[in-house]
Amino acid sequence: MSPESTGQNEHYLRVFWRGFRTWRGNRPFWAGLFTMVGGLPIAYFPYANMHLGNVTLAMSTTAGAGSLIIGILLVTLGLTMWFHHIVRVFAGVAAILLALISIPVANIGGFLVGFLFALLGGALSISWAPGEPKPELAPAGAVGEKSGAGLGTQESGPEFHSTAAVPQQQPEQYDTTVEVDGGRHRAG
């Protein structure tokens, strides 16, 4: 077994963590997490009771149902960012709009905690772009090789010297058949 192989000796937690990192890197993970974390206080605070000694403070307001709906929608949008990252821009815009709506509806957006997390998650979702694969590297000797064919031409003057090999371009193959209508389209 070579030292580079990841065989049976690797611990299952390391395998799981590597798979999770790969999964996390292919989607707007932090945007979804912040959006879901923002939805929780928005949905929770209107139904929470605080106990200060013998006094119970009820945080419920007339907009409790609206707060619950906004919080659940934010959690759903966070999951959408994770599992359907193709609609990340829509989910980000919707999360920002729901965060803004939560200010007057849901106890100042979950006491600004939920508002800020949902706003940050929506902005991260809109700005996230999938990474492009790394280009494959050419063999070490291929770049600087000098051969007689395919060298660049020298321009007039000593400052223009090209030593890189230029690939030969193939001429485009055009269809030379004549159409019945003389090459014009049907509209005119």
Structure explained in plain terms:
It is a single chain. The protein is mainly alpha-helical and 188 residues long. The protein is 47% helix and 4% strand. It contains 6 helices and 2 strands, in the order H-H-E-E-H-H-H-H. It has a two-stranded antiparallel ribbon. The longest helix has 20 residues. 24% of the residues are buried.
What order do the helices and strands come in, and which of them pair?
Blueprint: H1 12-25, H2 29-44, E1 49-52, E2 55-58, H3 64-83, H4 88-105, H5 107-111, H6 113-127
Antiparallel strand pairs: 1-2
Order of helices and strands: HHEEHHHH
Average predicted confidence as pLDDT? 79
Main beta sheet = 2 strands, antiparallel
Strand content: under 5%
Rg over CA atoms, rounded to whole Å, is 30 Å
Residue runs with pLDDT of under 50 for 5 or more positions: none
- Strand tally is 2
- Helix segment tally: 6
Distance between the termini: 70 Å
Strand order of the largest sheet: 1-2
Determine the fraction of residues in helical runs and give it as a percent range. Answer: 40-55%
General shape: elongated
